[in-house]
């Protein structure tokens, strides 16, 4: 049971055995309702239907070439973010995230959030109302590598603000500081 006041974000989990604690894994606590990814959802006709609302989709990529598709309806002018977390939560999954329109055309794609974080993040304001598909795919690289084990992910869909910068980066305890923030 997760305590009602538990801090949001990753927590270290271990098991205590007769000879001591096990290795550790990360377990994420989120403020959003959880949805479990359901197979088969590898082709557009079988995309898992979801509502476009704040949620955390918990999924797993199988060892074979696995693709997870999620279909939803968006309204024009809505801004949504799609945030995949895997590597930073201790899994081996490196992935890409593609937003497709109803005809299957790519609207936008992201493979690496930035130069330091290889998990994808999409932020999109929908110009047109309609049906869209979000495609989460394994990054296989030039060698065609597939994630073989520990390939879970958390896909958070939200309208949360996103900070991309802060200045200054720090100060001493007890000082009052005026921050400049950037983001969306």
Structural write-up:
This protein has 184 residues and is an all-beta fold. 0% of the residues lie in helices and 45% in strands. The chain is built from no helices and 16 strands. It has a 5-stranded mixed beta sheet with strand order 5-7-14-9-12, with no helix packed on it. It starts with 8 loop residues before the first strand and ends with a strand. The model has no long low-confidence stretch (mean pLDDT 91).
Summarize the structure.
The protein is mainly beta and 184 residues long. The chain contains no helices and 16 strands.
List keywords for this structure.
mainly beta, five-stranded mixed beta sheet
Alpha carbon gap, first and last residue: 34 Å
The total of helices stands at: 0
| Helix-strand pattern | EEEEEEEEEEEEEEEE
Poorly predicted runs of 5 or more residues: none
Q: Kindly state the percentage of residues in helix.
A: under 10%
Overall pLDDT score: 91
Structural class of the secondary structure composition?
Answer: mainly beta
Largest sheet, described in full? Answer: 5 strands, mixed
Specify the overall morphology. globular
- Rounded to the nearest angstrom, the radius of gyration is 19 Å
């Amino acid at each position: 049971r997760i305590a009602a006041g538990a801090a949001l974000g990753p927590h270290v989990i271990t098991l205590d055995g007769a000879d001591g604690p096990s290795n550790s894994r990360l377990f994420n606590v989120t403020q959003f309702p959880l949805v479990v990814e359901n197979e088969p959802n590898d082709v557009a006709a079988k995309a898992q239907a979801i509502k476009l609302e704040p949620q955390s989709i918990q999924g797993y990529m199988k060892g074979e070439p696995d693709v997870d598709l999620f279909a939803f309806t968006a309204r024009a002018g809505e801004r949504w973010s799609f945030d995949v977390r895997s590597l930073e939560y201790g899994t081996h999954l490196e992935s890409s995230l593609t937003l497709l329109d109803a005809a299957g055309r790519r609207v936008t794609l992201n493979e690496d959030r930035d130069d330091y974080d290889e998990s994808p993040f999409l932020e999109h304001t929908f110009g047109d109302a309609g049906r869209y598909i979000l495609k989460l795919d394994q990054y296989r690289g030039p060698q065609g590598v597939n994630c073989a084990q520990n390939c879970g992910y958390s896909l958070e869909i939200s309208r949360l603000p996103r900070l991309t910068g802060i200045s200054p980066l720090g100060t001493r305890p007890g000082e009052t500081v005026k921050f400049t923030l950037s983001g969306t």
